[in-house]
Amino acid sequence: MNSSSNFKRTVRIVSWTCGLLFAVFCVLYLSVMQPELLSTAQHLLSGGQTLYYPVWGTVIITLVLLLIQAAYRRTLAFPLRFNALYFFPSCLMLGLLTSISPQGDGWDVFMDTRWGWVVASICLYCVTVWFAMHFPDMKNRKQSIFSYLWVNLLLLSLQFCMVGSLANTNDVYHYRLQVEKHIVAGQDSLALQVGRKSLHADRSLTAMRAFALSRCGRLGDRLFDYPQCYGSNGLLPEASDTIYTYGWVQDLYRYLGGKPGRHLQDDVPLFLRTLIQLPSATEAVPDYLLCACLLDKKLDDFVRLLPRYYDLNGDLPLHYKEAVILYRRLHTAPAVVYRDTAVEANLDDFIRYGANFADATERVNQTRRMYGNTYWWYYYYQPLQ
């Protein structure tokens, strides 16, 4: 009788421990890692008619998954050592639910998961179930709770890893969702903090950051704080990329005062030069045009345009100073002369530091660590597409 009561107590402890860990995992996973993804999916599936509330969404999804686990528990009786196997259907559904991605056109989503992993996971689970059924509980033998817990914790950990392997965990896509949300809300400083240390970005994320920097008045000071892999094209989103949740593109072109026509979609500098001549152009366009010249490494064009919009005897944005001083170093008879002893000293340090590394790859990586946020590093080491 005592042995039976001890075993029932052990069953309760193991079951509640597994359930609590699963609930904690769901709450953290849904509320911290995937709220933007689920918000995007609901927005697209509802045609923009409904909103996703992360707190309520997390609670509802977690409760539903726990109910699925409870229902599954009534269909099969696993040995206590394999109690965590009851959570496999819930983990599988959680992974598939967060594997969604928007379609390339229209208000729709699809499951962007590797179905080979799904099949492999199910097959492995079936093998584990078969193995578990051949090792029933020995209720009359005294065993410590830990002997039951460690196996269940291992199985839960493997299932949590399965969720991550099935889900959409693309960091750049998640950065895009977060940045767009902040931009539309007017929270540009928060948008600029998202993924700021990452070296990965796509064209739309690059354009979003340029937009946020411009609205903060820092486009000419901090543009190269972020990876620039698309030249001047990175200042505007790609026309074929229509997957946006909150419509930040409309805000961007309203902010600039015009939108490129079909013949100008692939030529950002030409669009900006055309736009700046129109009455609708805003005060933000000159900086966009100057930064387009920098991104395309056209220093002569940059120097020719700079005096039209900035007083060379006054204080210039940081990247403009770096570009003008570099231009003067590269030309024996520069058309524009601008002096700043501190920036010139930094350029000398940059050149000397790079000369310390004979290997080209090492030079690129080491100088990126020290000077990756300067225009000089971009000019010398970032290839143009």
3D structure, described in words:
With 385 residues, the protein is mainly α. The chain has 3 domains: 2-169, no CATH class; 171-297, no CATH class; 313-385, no CATH class. It is built from 18 helices and 2 strands. It has a two-stranded antiparallel ribbon with strand order 1-2. A hairpin with a 6-residue loop joins β1 (100-102) and β2. The termini are far apart.
- Strand order, largest beta sheet: 1-2
- What does the main sheet amount to? 2 strands, antiparallel
Taking all Cα atoms into account, the compactness measure Rg is: 28 Å
First-to-last CA distance: 76 Å
Mean pLDDT: 87
Q: How many helix segments?
A: 18
Broad structural category = mainly alpha
Report helical residue fraction.
55-70%
Strand content: under 5%
Number of strand segments: 2
What general outline do the C-alpha atoms trace?
elongated
Low-confidence sequence ranges: none
Number of domains: 3
Order of helices and strands: HHHHEEHHHHHHHHHHHHHH
